[in-house]
Design a protein that fits this description.
mainly alpha, two-stranded antiparallel sheet
Length: 466
């Protein structure tokens, strides 16, 4: 093995173990939360890059091509049946269903075993999320009380979990982990609120027959869960059918992602003790068969043991865990960046920006995200703490909660998504809303980061003095 050490590749750390140059980072065992945090941070950075790319395209000579691509129709044809939408709609209605599927699984996990499972821990982020939805909506509605603009009241209610958590994660060494957990729980409850708002308030007309069929499919998914079916393929096929029926019914099709996620089983086939016994028996058999000259690639018996071990690993995890792990990466690194690329392309006219800032829609969205989130989250937290309804997360200060409330004003993905629904076909209002979302998200992110940076310095000083 010395030849490998001499050439500096450092690929062989110990006898019989090969590491490619980029593989060593995967040797570290991460908790599910650490993995989630890492992905949200990376996803937030990728989102930022794609949003900047979209803005550059929209303000260049390539904008007509960009618009043409998004308005190009594409579809699937099978005999007499067909479904056809523009590329932009496929992104918003199709790809985003996968995003809501992952959101649904995160919600289910959080309410069953996560930070929202224990009422005492859940009270503060739930209350904060409600305050952070209600106050922004009220601010927007006060500024836009009537007319077509009033439809946008749901836009400033949303928090972009990837951007917000990504920004806070940049301070991970300076803020307590419990503060990050608080923001994640708040953002997940916020996502649930956004899903309910979309389902109940941004559905125009409902076709009864497809909706009844969708209800039947949802019932069948629940039946599969109760029957103990743990194979994920039937759930996937039925969830696709549910998406199509909801799309036909007029209810926003992305809701199928959340409903499908809620039916995914959470009980694994093996408990940890049974899994441990199975692994020990398999490893004893593996050790008896394995010799230095044998390879898993060429020896059928070794391969059979490894495949059985792999099946056992899959069965000790619940289908919900497996699917969440499997889909989180493509959604975080592909679906959301594509959505940003397709929806953040906003032509900015800086000459008329001063005039734009006085428009009611711009003011409603901007003030809702920046001021509304801050007042709503901080105010509710202060009230709940004063009334002893909840307690601060471990090792956090109220000053840090206030900083997090600013970061929660980063609306981006969900806010743009709601804006698309609220101002469908009203390009001028949609442009105002999207511009306000970008502007407010930038201010919320920068001010929230600076606030928490300074708050962390003061906290560290107090600890040092004590």
């Amino acid at each position: 093995m010395s030849e490998h050490k001499n050439n500096g590749s450092n690929r062989f750390k110990k006898e019989g173990v090969y590491n490619a140059l980029w593989e060593e980072k995967f040797d570290k065992i991460l908790t599910p939360f650490d993995e989630f945090l890492h992905r949200q941070t990376t996803s937030g950075l990728l989102l930022m890059v794609m949003a900047i790319v979209a803005l550059l395209i929209a303000n260049s000579s390539y904008f007509p091509i960009y618009e043409k691509v998004l308005h190009t129709y594409s579809g699937v044809h099978i005999g007499d049946w067909s479904i056809k939408m523009t590329i932009g709609h496929w992104v918003d209605d199709g790809l985003m269903a996968l995003f809501f599927f992952v959101v649904g699984m995160e919600l289910k996990r959080e309410f069953l075993v996560g930070e929202l499972a224990e009422l005492r821990n859940a009270m503060l982020p739930i209350g904060a999320a409600i305050g952070g939805m209600v106050i922004p909506a009220l601010i927007y509605f006060v500024i836009n009380p009537q007319g077509e603009a009033a439809e946008g009241w749901g836009i400033p209610m949303a928090t972009d979990i990837a951007f917000a958590v990504g920004a806070l994660a940049l301070l991970a060494g300076r803020v307590p982990k419990a503060l990050i957990t608080f923001l994640v729980a708040l953002a997940i409850v916020d996502d649930l609120g956004a899903v309910l708002v979309i389902a109940f308030f941004y559905t125009d007309t409902i076709a009864t027959t497809p909706l009844m069929i969708a209800a039947g499919i949802f019932g069948l998914l629940i039946t599969l869960n109760l029957a103990g079916i743990r194979k994920t393929t039937p759930y996937f096929i039925l969830a696709v059918c549910l998406w199509y029926m909801l799309y036909q019914s007029g209810v926003h099709a992305t809701i199928a992602g959340v409903l499908g996620a809620f039916t995914v089983p959470t009980i694994p086939k093996y408990n940890p003790n049974l899994f441990s016994k199975q692994v020990k028996n398999l490893m004893e058999r593996f050790d008896k068969i394995a010799t230095p000259k044998k390879s898993v690639l060429t020896d059928h018996e070794l391969r059979a043991v490894v495949e059985t071990l792999d099946e056992g690993v899959n069965n000790v995890e619940s289908p919900l865990q497996r699917l969440e792990h499997k889909w989180h990466m493509p959604v975080a690194y592909l679906v959301i960046p594509i959505f940003a690329l397709a929806n953040a392309g906003i032509p900015l006219n800086m000459a008329s920006f001063d005039q734009m800032m006085t428009e009611p829609v711009f003011l409603g969205v901007g003030l809702g995200l920046i001021l509304g989130k801050f007042v709503g989250i901080t105010g509710v937290c202060w009230l709940m703490l004063k009334m002893n309804i909840a307690t601060l997360p471990k090792e956090t200060s109220f000053n840090q909660i206030a900083g997090v409330s600013l970061l929660a004003g980063i609306g981006f993905t969900m806010s743009i998504f709601v804006a698309q629904l609220a101002f469908n076909g009203q390009e001028e209002l949609l442009l105002l809303a999207k511009t306000a979302i970008l502007f407010a998200s930038l201010i919320a992110g920068v001010t929230g980061y600076i606030w928490l940076y300074l708050a962390s310095n003061s906290t560290a000083s107090v600890k040092g003095e004590s």
